[in-house]
């Protein structure tokens, strides 16, 4: 076999796949954050905790009710979405008239409470979640071995991301959403119930986090801290992509996952910080982010 | 539509309207009547409360009290998003064209609230400039075209009362003329129009009556056919 810069292809492609998987989660999570930030102007610090709850709901459905992966894939985002609707209705909606900082502080506090509660009941060691039977095994692609489940995660997250992009950028409902992001008062003056749209948007954004949690459960363990570990990178992705930019979130999420994978191959020492280095450079050159618009 | 000979019914009746932005009390007891099929202007200097009166009708000011009745229904206390659904279309002063939406998306954005709205071909006939611009980003249109789009999107909804806030502001005379032609055509179609205008000469060519506002009150009402006799008074009010 050939070598690339002294790196065996199995290692390179293995890391690229890992990067693509991580990128899929970055994309799904930063997409939800972007949708929420665009509409609510809230930086949703509870996103990582809701991702963790998505995974835990899947695990609880399996261990308490015997409902498997495919059930969880539908039910868990629904439950997390409903939880989001309740949080928005009872708490977040009271803060819109105040500085954005209050929304950030509230969601940060909620994240600490949610993670603390799960840590109290389930500890930090993590619970295993089995790969569903239909997705066990893998494919030999010649240059590398692709586990079926990982391929599925990449495909599923791409479908969800681009489906969401299409719904927002190309449909009538999406036009309402974009318009209300720009000028909610006027959209309301056309007879559209904007507060309901805002609640639904938050619910949808966190449901994406819940979905990411279910997809992650069989790969990473189900642990109360799984969200905390991921969310800092995801925030960097959102900043690089441009706050509130849908396409920016998706493309940057996948791109940075791959970049991280490559860094692990060629300069592993930098792999944990490469995202933040990119963030610093982007902020210096284009403060609104790669896909962001100056306000 | 009732013709001029019959008594026209009151469409909009504003009584003792008070409005506030935070602590500041902006409207102090505004009284206005608009009959079906009329074009009525609100004249006055900057800060007289014309735009606030319109925003009060739409329910988008901080706090308001008094009474605003549209076709007999009280608007004060009604949920904001239900007011336009009664058939009131709002064209804001800043035009409110959405930059993240194409011209078509802007045009199709306001939901249809009643049957009998204009069709898209009829709208293009009224505003030929908009035709063939569908995929252009809304805010890339010229100021005049944006104004036309802001009016056009309301015509689709079936609203029968249209609130036009300074449609000629910042536009070239030739564009103002086009807007004037369009507003006259809308009047012929039976639309009822409330117009806020600084451009008094424009207002005189299309309105039936003029309400003059000063410091949050209506201080005078001048029918358009008695305008000539009242020019001196009007000049004093408007300070022109």
TrEMBL record, chain A:
Choose one Gene Ontology CC annotation of this protein and give it.
plasma membrane
State if NADP is listed as a keyword: no
UniProt membrane topology term: Multi-pass membrane protein
Q: Which InterPro entries match?
A: ABC_transp_permease (IPR001851), BCAA_transport_permease (IPR052157)
From the record, give the transmembrane residue ranges.
12-35, 42-62, 68-88, 100-122, 149-168, 200-220, 232-259, 265-285
Q: Which Pfam families match?
A: BPD_transp_2
Give UniProt keywords alphabetically. Answer: Amino-acid transport, Cell membrane, Membrane, Plasmid, Transmembrane, Transmembrane helix, Transport
Record bears the keyword Membrane: yes
An annotated Gene Ontology molecular function: transmembrane transporter activity
Q: Give the record's GO biological process terms.
A: amino acid transport
Where is it located?
A: Cell membrane
The organism sits in which domain of life? Bacteria
**Family the entry assigns:** Belongs to the binding-protein-dependent transport system permease family. LivHM subfamily.
Q: What is this protein called?
A: Branched-chain amino acid ABC transporter permease
Q: Which organism is it from?
A: Azospirillum brasilense
Automatic annotation (TrEMBL), chain B:
**PROSITE patterns given for it?**
ABC_TRANSPORTER_1, ABC_TRANSPORTER_2
The alphabetized list of GO BP terms reads: L-amino acid transport
Q: Does the keyword Zinc apply?
A: no
Judging by the UniProt lineage, the source's domain of life is Bacteria
Q: Where is the ABC transporter domain?
A: 12-240
The record's InterPro entries line, in alphabetical order, gives: AAA+_ATPase (IPR003593), ABC_transporter-like_ATP-bd (IPR003439), ABC_transporter-like_CS (IPR017871), BCAA_Transport_ATP-bd_LivF (IPR052156), P-loop_NTPase (IPR027417)
Q: Which family does the record claim for this protein?
A: Belongs to the ABC transporter superfamily.
**PANTHER family, per the entry:** HIGH-AFFINITY BRANCHED-CHAIN AMINO ACID TRANSPORT ATP-BINDING PROTEIN LIVF (PTHR43820)
For this entry, the protein name equals Branched-chain amino acid transport system ATP-binding protein
Its source organism is: Azospirillum baldaniorum
